[in-house]
Amino acid sequence: MPLNQPSQAEGDFVLRGDVVYSGDPLTLRAFPDAFLVCRAGKSAGVFTRLPAEYSGLPLEDRRGKLILPGLTDLHIHAPQFGFRALGMDLELLDWLEKRAFPEEAKFSDPSYARLAYGLFTEAVRRGPGTRLCVFATIHPEATMILQDLLEESGLVSLVGKVSMDRNCPASLREEQGTVETWLALSAERKYRNTGPILTPRFIPSCGDDLLRSLGKLARSRDLPVQSHLSENRREIAWVRELCPASAHYAGAYRDFDLFGGGIPTIMAHCVWPEEGELQLIRERGVYVAHCPQSNTNIGSGIAPARRLLNRGIPVGLGSDVAGGIHSSIFRAMGDAIQVSKLRKALAESSAGAPAGTAAGAPIGEDDLRPLGLEEAFWMGSAGGGAFFNTGSFEEGKEFDCLVIDDADLAAPFPLSLRDRLERTVYLSEDRHIQAKYVRGKRIL
Ligand code: GUN
Ligand code: FE
After folding, report:
1. CA of 37 to the centre of ligand 2 (A)
2. Which end of the chain is more exposed for a tag (fewer CB within 10 A), N or C?
């Protein structure tokens, strides 16, 4: 859904090169030596011969290079970037208490925020992502610093001042009215590419009054929402105690009107969904951010990504730094494929409990089939990108694009475009990105 429309044309041009994008979760569209046309910041399509009507447009000759859609990170914590790859010996709730909360408390200091968010923004600017949904901290001033930096970077982002007021250190407890203060500051800036997103951290951190007020704000101001859902078994048991009247974890968000149904909503994880949660996610059009690396690192489990896809649930990928170590969504694609194979192997082994059955959702016949390149690439580009109306080169999509110079990933035998994409997913580094466009504007 388009949340941030380009306010003006970003230039009209044509890129020539080896174009690959996702048609649907099962189909790659690959066009060797083709013409990708950008009009007014949107894709006008891919052509094997340039139509006469576009022959007068400036032509960027990138022959021999891979031209891919920009990637979307549906779930990342900017203040956690500084401690990525540290504290990986802890499970979610202990990790939050011992690592995440103490680090996030430091963002009450704007100069610390400027330093930390500067490092974060530079890393995502140089990476393959063009869109991101970001958790900040509870601090409005620090969150504005992050928003200013992201706006300057040229990336498109939705940024959330985190809301939390229970089960956390006193220094991270939000006071009443801070969300409105932050929203007002945010509106004053008149950003082009940076929007606000309401961000209740997760049910255990948010009291009923806070959740109720956020639900009302989402409806009355037409704001999107992001949070965490059914990530870890201890967390889920805790939510059951905290919300005994709700049918399940997803139901608790729904009961506070923070769960889709006209409110664009992203829920990270869904590692252990109940059947009722799957139905509610689907009915309410909630996006799931699949975060395979984080789910591995902080011991949450293996999310049933194939089952979510089979149920027609919109799924994108999240790096979930710093539960995840790597901010690249190429890396998340590879991880998604790899953990889907482990999930099948575990379920089939007599020693291992079938992953994902504990909470009761039945596993369908096809639900354990490992993900392939097509599906993982779709999730990281078109799947998550759909939240922003981008992620593919279908006509009318907002024009986010990567030019990849993969010459040094060559093999001693010919590689198809699909082969080159696969190598790029697993082997490319930021240095392979020769150019990056967001809404038709070159930012790298
Ligand atoms: N649940 C609540 N907060 C967090 C967080 O910061 N990271 C992850 N992975 N899960 C959470
Ligand atoms: Fe997270």
Report:
1. 36
2. N
Q: What is the pLDDT of residues 83-134, one digit of tens each?
A: 999 999 999 999 999 999 999 999 999 999 999 999 999 999 999 999 999 9
pTM of the model: 0.96
Span 168-197, pLDDT tens digits: 999 999 999 999 999 999 999 999 999 999
Collapsing DSSP to helix, strand or coil, 198 comes out as strand
Candidate CATH numbers 3.30.450.20, 3.20.20.140, 3.40.640.10, 3.30.2310.20; the one for domain 71-387: 3.20.20.140
Q: Is the CB of 269 under 6 A from ligand 1?
A: no
Q: What φ, ψ does residue 228 adopt, rounded to 5°?
A: -115, 145
What is the 3 state secondary structure string of 309-349?
HHCCCCEEECCCECCECCCCHHHHHHHHHHHHHHHHHHHHC
Q: 13-70+392-442 sits in which CATH class?
A: mainly beta
Distance 48 CA to ligand 1 centre (A): 45
Q: Does the Cβ of 331 fall within 6 Å of ligand 1?
A: no
Q: 201 CB under 6 A from ligand 1?
A: yes
